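Quick bug: PTS system IIA component output formatted oddly.
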Amino acid sequence: MSEVNNMELIIFNIINYGGTAKSLSYEALAAAEKGDYDEADRLLKEADQNLLESHKVQTDLISKEAAGEKTEVSLLMVHAQDHLMTAIEAKSLIECMISLHKRIDQMSE
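Here's what came back:
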């Protein structure tokens, strides 16, 4: 596989894992809105696994660059990093929202 194709595969892995984590986080919020907190927790754990995989790919790139192997920063790479960053932020905010849903449900019981 050529170096360019390999880098594109690496970048698309970051995008895929980040996007999946974000989608799972929003699914968790939808489950919490229905009061299904077990499902919300399960989906958040699955989102964490996807974020972990994305971080592994990113960390490998960072380690290689720290060792002197430069990575070309393309628009696609920036897009991948944006996906990962927004997935992390969305999950963080959604966890807070789910916590609020739990508190509201407890107060209304």
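Actually, after a second look the formatting is fine. The chain has three helices and no strands. Closing.
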